[in-house]
Amino acid sequence: MENKLFFFDIDGTLTDRKTGKIVPSAKRALELLEENGHFVSIATGRAHYKSRELLTELGLENMVCSGGMGVVIKNQLVKNTPLDKEEALAVIHDAEEKGIGVLIATDDSEKVYAKNDLFREQVGPRQEPTEYFIDPTFSVDEVEDIFKFYLALPKEQDHRIPEPKKFSKLRFVQEYTMCQHDNKKQGILDVLDYFDRPREDVVVFGDDVNDLVMFDKRWTSIAMGNAVDELKELADYVTDQNVDDGIYNACMKFGWI
C-alpha cells in the first residue's frame, strides 16, 4: 500500500461542533493511519500556540496551522510566517484614520498590543483568552513582525475596510473581524516540498468554506457528510457525517486502514 500524506480540518471534521470534542472513531482512524506508515497532520487556520494542546490530545506530531503559514513536523515548528508588513500597516493605518479600534499580535501568543483601548470601548473584549497591552507610546510601525490583527468592525460595517490582497479578513463573531493568513493549501505544499513528495500523495478532509482552498484536483479531497454544499461539489468523495464515523469509514473504503 502506497503511503499518503493526510491533512485533517478540525472543527466539524475531527471534532463534533456541538460538543467541541474529538470524535472517537476519528482519533482511532488517525492512530491506524500512522500505524500503517502514513503521514498524518491537522490543517487549521488557528495560530500555532492555539493548536498545540489539540495536537497533543490527538497524539500527533505534525500540523499545518496559522492559516497555512505555520508548519510543524515531528513536533518542531519549521515555519511560521508573519503577515506582509507593508500591507498590514496600510490596513491598520486606514482603520485608525477611520476611528476603528485595532489590536495587534506581534508574536505567536495571546498577547495583543494597542496605543489605546478603542477596540474594547467599541465592541468589547475578544471572545477568547487574551492578554492586553495598552500603551500610548506603542508604535506598530516599529514592531518587527505582525502575525495578525483585530479590527473593531461589526459585520454591518465590514465594507469600511477593503479586502487585503496578501492575507484575509475573517469573521468568526459578529462584533469584530480578524486579519490573518487563510491559505491552508500553502502549508500542505510546504510539507510536500519538505519531504519532496508529489501532490498526488495528498489526502485532505474538510467540512466548511474555509476548507475550499485545500480542495485541489491534483490530490484526493474528501468532504464530510455534514459539509457545506460548495465543498461537496468540489470533493472527490463525500463520506458520512463526522459524528457517524465519516473519517474512519472513508479510510476503510479506500484501504488506507
What features would you describe in this structure?
The chain is α/β, with parallel strands linked by helices and 257 residues long. Helix content is 26%, strand content 21%. The chain is elongated and about 60 Å long.
> Biggest sheet: strands side by side, in what order?
5-4-3-2-1-12-13-14
First-to-last CA distance: 10 Å
Structural class, from secondary structure content?
alpha/beta
Kindly identify the CATH topology of the largest domain: Rossmann fold
The major beta sheet can be summarized as:
8 strands, mixed
Dominant shape: elongated
Strand content: 15-25%
Overall pLDDT level: 96
Query: Which range best describes the helical content: under 10%, 10-25%, 25-40%, 40-55%, 55-70% or over 70%?
Result: 25-40%
**Number of domain units:** 2
Give me the number of helical elements: 7
CATH superfamily of the largest domain: HAD superfamily/HAD-like
CATH architecture of the largest domain: 3-Layer(aba) Sandwich
Number of DSSP strands?
14
What's the order of the H and E elements? Answer: EHEHEEEHEEHEEEEHEEHEH
Organism: Enterococcus gilvus ATCC BAA-350
Protein name: Cof-like hydrolase
Pfam families: Hydrolase_3
Keywords: Hydrolase
